[in-house]
Recover the amino acids of this structure.
């Protein structure tokens, strides 16, 4: 059980990361209006959020640029066109490099970019390529994280080896990513302990990115926070792939550091997020995502279930068992 002081006090080391554009972009193929992005940027500044993840820097050799909004590719020019060079704020800007879907040659030197942080996303078996990207980004002057995905499907020894490998790089933060939303808080505590034993040897920080298939994204985030994880991901109204993520408004309301202010978040939900929902963009907890979470499976079939507007949950569950 957590000490009560862990819930009533705050740590200066905590960093809040907004992933609305990046994870939320998976719900609408990254077609956000410039006005939405500007309002989100302003809200993050006013709310005291530490990092804003703007999207992926996906390779145009892999993805057809005509089929996605610009935040799928998130060039430095795109960023400057919409929010400028981010000078004079405490907010830092981040983008994600998705291993196997990126090209490290698309990343300029940090001195020439408004981006501060490169988040490298990889599965356990992709660690060598992830390490290559981390080292390249660090040499160019960026802060880096390694987001190890789908850990609930990884063998514990393989996961330990992956964490050990990445801790020996210049990476700043190792992320615990519950990609399938299948981890319970008690399990999360054990995962954090395992990561922390390794990360502490190398002086690395830990982060958490949780999905909400079983409505545990917030619970797992504050569980990890109470166990010493410092970097906490959230998205406004929980927007993200499938069942979505830890809601930013819940996270900002929970954290006791007076630098964080939940009021601008509520204003943004009212003026922009509700409008996005009303426009037909779909995300959030539903039974089909619960089923994939219970069964520790990727939500791709549940996403298709949602697109097909199905409601035959029992049949879907039966199909998923076999």
């Amino acid at each position: 059980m957590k000490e009560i002081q862990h819930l009533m006090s705050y740590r200066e080391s905590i960093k809040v990361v907004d992933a609305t554009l990046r994870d939320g972009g998976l719900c609408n193929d990254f077609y956000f209006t410039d006005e939405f992005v500007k309002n989100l940027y302003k809200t993050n500044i006013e709310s005291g959020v530490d990092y804003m993840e703007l999207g992926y820097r996906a390779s145009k050799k892999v993805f057809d640029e005509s089929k996605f909004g610009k935040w799928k590719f998130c060039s430095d020019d795109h960023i400057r066109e919409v929010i400028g060079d981010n000078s004079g704020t405490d907010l830092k800007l981040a983008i994600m490099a998705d291993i196997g879907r990126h090209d490290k040659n698309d990343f300029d030197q940090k001195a020439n970019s408004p981006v501060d942080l490169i988040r490298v996303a990889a599965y356990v078996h992709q660690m060598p390529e992830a390490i290559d990207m981390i080292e390249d980004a660090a040499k160019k002057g960026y802060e880096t994280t390694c987001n190890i995905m789908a850990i609930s499907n990884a063998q514990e020894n393989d996961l330990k080896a992956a964490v050990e490998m990445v801790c020996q790089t210049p990476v700043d933060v190792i992320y615990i990513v519950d990609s399938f939303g299948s981890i319970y808080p008690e399990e999360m505590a054990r995962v954090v302990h395992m990561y922390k034993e390794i990360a502490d040897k190398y002086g690395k920080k830990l982060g958490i990115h949780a999905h909400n298939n079983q409505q545990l994204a917030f619970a797992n985030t504050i569980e990890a926070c109470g166990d010493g994880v410092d970097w906490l991901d959230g998205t406004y109204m929980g927007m993200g792939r499938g069942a979505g993520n830890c809601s930013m408004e819940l996270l900002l309301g929970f954290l006791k550091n007076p630098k964080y202010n939940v009021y601008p978040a509520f204003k943004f939900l009212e003026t922009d997020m509700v409008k996005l929902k009303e426009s037909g963009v779909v995300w959030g907890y539903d039974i089909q995502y619960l089923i994939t979470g219970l069964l520790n499976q990727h939500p791709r079939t549940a996403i298709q279930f949602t697109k097909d507007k199905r409601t035959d949950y029992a049949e879907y569950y039966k199909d998923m068992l076999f």
The chain is about 45% helix and 15% strand. Residues 286-322 form one domain. The longest strand covers residues 92-98. Residues 185-202 form the longest helix (18 residues).
